[in-house]
Amino acid sequence: MSIVLEVVGMALMALGLVVMLIGIIGIFRFKNFYARILVVSKVDTVGVLIFLIGLAIRHGFSFFSGKLLLLMVIILILSPLVGHMIARSAYASGLKLTDPHKADDKNEGDGL
Amino acid sequence: MIYAILGFWVLTALMMLREEKVGRIIIYFGIYSLVAAAALLILGSPDVAMAEIAISAFATIFFVIGAEKYYNLAYGTDIAQEDKTTTEGMKKKSGIKKHIAPLVFTLFIFGLVLYFVPENNPNPYLKEQYITRFMTEMGGENATSAIYLGYRVYDTIFEALVLVVAVVAVLHMSFFERTSIDDGIRSDIQRSGLAVFIIRIITPLILIFGIYLVVNGFLTPGGGFQGGVAVATFFICRYMIYNIFDLPIGRILRMEELVFVSIVLFAIVGIFLGTAAYVPSGWLVHFQHTYLIIMNALIGIKVACGFTLLFYRYAGIERLEGDER
């Protein structure tokens, strides 16, 4: 039983790291700020959550997993809020949604 | 080897004294503090090296602000010397020398640090003494709190003093004459309803978490400094919910200074006078725990007040006055 828990936990932790790696590649590929913040605020939350679920499964039903569950709830509430506030303050400071110098017929200005 | 770095230290000090342009003196001061920190590291006291770097960082800011008011930074005290910096003179000195000297200097400092940072610790006497003895001598189960509240409490007093001075300096050095907001003015930024809604749920948890970190600093990782920052975050969240600057700044500053004085007095009574020898034998553990909890609580109050004042200054007065201009 503990071997099954260990393997499933490690597989989920690896999956969480792969998701975060894809998000980091996305940051380097996008050129526009708003596209980047969109990717980061989703991938960051989901990757960390999958990682923590794998860690909690690996340690079984214990006090440690209870603390991880509380941590997961707090991350689920606060991490998208941080992305929202960053994007909102960027818009309020005047950063335009599309760069008018990059918009042409081929791509519509998101700079991918 | 030691004499080389000491000679270099004296050399940078002399370089500062011989220079006439005030802007260059300020830059040489930064180099001087780096060389001094490297020398102190080699002589065996890394904590003094860190204090040197921190203090020179603050002092550079003060020098720039002060010197900008009285001197023309590019030319020094004598304005008639601008004839010296003609374009032909500047072209002769530039070229390859411009790139070689900083590179050599950087490699020299890096080489010194890498040479003297030990990988296998040749003298682990102090580390073993701390690790084997801290539970019986200082109480608690967190070695870090035993060190910064017991064995090296002198450094903690100095660190708290640096924080108080930094907050007082920020509050008094400003381009604007206004020093407090008395009429409960509200800022005019359109707030996000989503952010306010979620922060209303999270704020009590942040306060409880901050108090937990402060009070349990001697058992689990935490302590006065970390918990104080969490409590200051609570006050920042309070501003984000209610959008009003109504804290009494003068009273909070007085409280912070009084708490700092009480930290010093408590450290004297608890550690420096050696009262642990006069405590009756069954009560030593309670005395140690009381000392640790009260010191952590005082440091937490001080740090929370300091960071709240800094936030109030920057987000309140600097932004409001800056918008009016």
Quick take:
The complex is a heterodimer of chains A (112) and B (325). With 112 residues, chain A is mainly α.
How would you describe this structure to a colleague?
The complex is a heterodimer of chains A (112) and B (325). Chain A has one domain. Helices cover 75% and strands 0% of the residues of chain A. With 325 residues, chain B is mainly alpha-helical. Chain B has 2 domains: 117 residues, no CATH class; 203 residues, no CATH class. The chains are: A mainly alpha (112), B mainly alpha (325).
Which structural class should the secondary elements of chain A be placed in?
mainly alpha
Number of alpha- plus pi-helical segments of chain A: 3
Uncertain stretches of 5 or more adjacent residues of chain A? none
What best-fitting shape of chain A do the alpha-carbon axes yield? elongated
Main sheet attributes: strand count, strand direction, barrel closure of chain B:
none
Helix segment count of chain B? 12
Assembly state: heterodimer
Query: What is the chain-wise order of helices and strands of chain A?
Result: HHH
Mean pLDDT of chain B: 81
Give the uncertain stretches of chain B in residue-range form.
Answer: 78-84
